[in-house]
Write a sequence for this structure.
DNA sequence: TTGAAAGCGCTAACAC
DNA sequence: GTGTTAGCGCTTTCAA
């Protein structure tokens, strides 16, 4: 440690400017001088102090990623993709977990610690509309998710309504008519749940099928257990259903478990559709048909948009970037 | 941005030292002065430049966590726990993904970027014994996992042999006698797989049951698909088994899927045991009996050990810290 | 092609 | 109690 430019300069018999030039591949350094400096660097095991460099340059080469919880598979897979993309761009990522707690999310937004990063990719869950003012435009932020629509920041997200509608239409096209929903949120205006519900209703409406509140199961937290609970509650009411649309994969998997336990066959008696295309949906029993909302594209675009914003200063007005989706057909909706 | 101590001092009509004193809760500041400074801070929206502070202090307040891949549930849950612990200690965490690639792991170890962090929690998968020399003792490192046993660094890990032995004994105690293994690695000397295999064999030996290579399935990568593949291959050979011990939960879940598909009942015909206690094991169908190797403790201990090492300088000799394990009984091994 | 020196924003001796 | 000032290690004009 503690080997500085000055030490290297001393050993090489040059000024620190020359050493700096060598390190930064500055062109105008005589071949012989360069060699001497490189020898000194190797001899001393010098490596530049990034903190000092950052202080000078005003950049840190790091971005922050704030998600509710890495132990939720969706966010784990999102984070994996974001880190991979950032890595490729030569940027490191520090990950914050907000626990979907509004107070913690505000803390991230106000960013006492933002000095350590050049920008933030932020996927809030608890934030309210009135918190938006907190998002200053000075610090580069890219928002993810559905929770915030009018922040003065770029927003990368998915086509929730269209994708949920397509998923529902897929089930309808199979002749399913009593399509239950698991994972609805009560009294929610914004957010993935309400958007996906809208897509579901649009599809029903277009097919002339009445909406039935009795087969809409609430699950506030989208954990596997809450999906299972909602399904169990619904079955206890002896409803008639021939399909289940889980508003995300996690609740869909929980619901599917309860369906199978209840003696129903999937997909023969009840088809099951998820949303998110988590890796594990490929390996559930049966494997789960789901909607790939374009997570890979979202990660890539979030990173590149943020880096452009960081590099470009106070560029254009906030943009909304929408990923393409795709239905991934698996066993849980196989025909016959 | 760009509001500095100097600006605040100007507005408050004091020197920067006084502002600094206020910010750092230095005791000797008159009440009135403090109030004036705080007003100025609020007015200007000042927040200290962490990079400058770091440069002065030589600390960054950040640590790095290097894992193979966050989209692997084990590492996602580990990372979640590490970040939570670090958070509580007021430290942020950079997450790096090495892809279990030796070259990338070496890169992390050599750490061109380590200047951004005060230390590293490192869970390698590809590293070889001869790479250990790379671990200098100047930079605080805490190792996780089984891959490296003699690094000059603290090592926090689990009781693989004992836990695997206990898991096997649990199955034996149920009267299972043909216990297959899924997830063995070929020709591996170090690593979780060989340790857990050792525990398995110890239990068999103690029970006087011969080891049978025909019911040991290899799965190099411990993905769900490789677990499923290994199980399928084994079943295709028409072997006689009454239990499966997956060397981790992921392969166990993949194997369980194939068992169920093959028409076998779990646990009636074949009991299934996993290892890791991933969240999802609670919600599989049937839920998976597994070994909790003490991941929460490992995360907590890794963070506290690293922070102690950072704070304490070149302290004691490398220590090995072992977590307690626990068998989590679920449906996949329920009796009768 | 290289050197001298200013300063990024902050902390902490050391004065007063 | 508060102000002055010297750096932390680096990059970068500006001269030489």
């Amino acid at each position: 440690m503690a080997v500085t430019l000055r030490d290297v300069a001393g050993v090489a018999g040059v000024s620190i400017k020359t050493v700096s030039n060598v390190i930064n591949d500055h062109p105008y350094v005589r071949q012989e001088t360069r060699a001497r400096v490189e020898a000194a660097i190797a001899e001393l095991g010098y490596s530049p102090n990034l903190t000092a460099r950052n202080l000078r340059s005003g950049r840190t080469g790091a971005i922050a990623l704030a998600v509710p919880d890495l132990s939720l598979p969706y966010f784990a897979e999102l984070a994996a993709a974001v880190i991979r993309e950032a890595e490729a761009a030569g940027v490191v990522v520090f990950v914050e977990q907000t626990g979907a707690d509004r107070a913690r999310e505000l803390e991230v937004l106000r960013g006492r610690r933002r000095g350590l990063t050049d920008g933030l990719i932020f996927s809030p869950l608890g934030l309210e509309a009135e918190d938006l003012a907190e998002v200053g435009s000075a610090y580069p932020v890219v928002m993810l998710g559905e929770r915030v629509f009018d922040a003065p920041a770029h927003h990368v997200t998915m086509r929730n309504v269209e994708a949920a509608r397509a998923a529902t239409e897929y089930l309808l096209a199979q002749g399913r008519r009593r399509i239950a929903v698991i994972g609805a949120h009560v009294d929610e205006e914004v957010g993935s749940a309400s958007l996906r519900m809208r897509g579901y209703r649009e599809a029903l409406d277009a097919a002339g099928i009445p909406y039935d509140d009795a087969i809409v199961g609430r699950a506030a937290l989208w954990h596997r257990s809450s999906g299972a609970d909602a399904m169990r509650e619904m079955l206890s009411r002896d409803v008639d259903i021939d399909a289940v649309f889980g508003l995300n994969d996690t609740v869909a998997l929980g619901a599917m478990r309860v369906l199978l336990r209840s003696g129903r066959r999937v997909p023969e008696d009840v088809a099951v559709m998820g949303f998110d295309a988590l890796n594990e949906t490929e390996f559930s029993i049966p494997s789960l048909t789901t909607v790939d909302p374009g997570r890979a594209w979202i990660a890539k675009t979030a990173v590149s948009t943020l880096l452009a914003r960081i590099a470009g200063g106070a560029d254009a007005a906030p943009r909304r970037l929408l990923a393409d989706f795709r239905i991934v057909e698996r066993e849980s909706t196989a025909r016959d």
